[in-house]
Amino acid sequence: MRPWWISLALCFAIMSCQTAISDPTNAAAITPTSAYRSDSIAGFTVLFNPEVLKHPKEAKALRQELQSQLSAITRVLPAKPLNKLKKVRIWVEWQRKVNGAAEFHPSADWLRQNGYNPDKAGGVELSNTRNFVQWSQTDQPWMVLHELAHAYHFLVVGYGNSEIQAAYQNILDRQLYKSVAYVRGGKKPAYALTDDKEYFAEISEAYFGKNDFYPFNRAELKKYDPVGYQLMEKMWQK
């Protein structure tokens, strides 16, 4: 008869294996790049996880929203940065994150360590199909530009850029963005306060399109945060 402690150890081992297999972030559950359906939308390469295609209604809605946003981006971005950003792949997932919608992935190592496909490094991920469509149509119509601004910051300008850091420090010193109008009403601290990366992405939305926090557009950015406005004028010409 097997000693009780061996039986218990085997039980825990089986449970651990089952957890690892069922965990959607486990490396074994990663969908290989070859399984994605590649499409071209407004000159950008978009990769659809096969799970998304099992939901044709939602997939169609996402594609239409993505077409709308990317087409708008091609109209407002200067040619040089636009051509660079068209090399950034966009990955579409069904529900990689329950409470997410979109993110930029700078690090292949981080992706490997956290159970993601490392091929997503340097790319934008739409991590939840339904959330992306709903949030875009509710209050974040330039969500894709926000993530592409992160890509531009990392791949072209470079994280740690002293001018971006100085502009971010300026808003902290002047206590800007601490209580500003929000698109749904009321006032709250702007997302731009998070760090210099989110600051750059948020004011890029205002500069080229419409943000969900004040300043909402280019004219308001120029008036409220002239240092940030000048930063946009310079950085988006690289």
Order of helices and strands: HEEHHHEEHEHHHEEHHH
User: What is the residue-mean pLDDT, rounded to a whole number?
Assistant: 91
Beta content = 5-15%
Q: Give the spatial strand order of the biggest sheet.
A: 1-2-3-5-4
Decide which structural class fits the backbone.
Answer: alpha/beta
- Given the structure, what is the number of helices? 11
How helix-rich are the residues, as a percent range?
Answer: 40-55%
The number of distinct β-strands equals 7
**End-to-end span in angstroms?**
73 Å
> Unreliable segments (pLDDT under 50, ≥5 consecutive)?
1-28
Which of globular, elongated, flat, extended, rod-shaped describes the shape? globular
Radius of gyration over C-alpha positions, nearest whole angstrom: 21 Å
Main beta sheet strand tally, sense and closure: 5 strands, mixed
Count of spatially separate domains: 2
